[in-house]
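Researcher: Next entry in the queue.
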Amino acid sequence: MRGLDIFSQKLVAREPGAWSITEEGRSFLAILERPPAADRLRPPSRARSPR
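Model: Structure for this entry, 51 residues:
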């Protein structure tokens, strides 16, 4: 992603010997993991049962 800087945007914190995801980082990931709006508006498909 252009313009993404995980450190300056405080999505990840650098600690001595480790990196950790921040609350802001978790929120950002939750947004990325959501389905696109069109998929959220579409009702779930129903599988047909075999005859």
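Model: The chain is about 30% helix and 15% strand.
Researcher: Noted, moving on.
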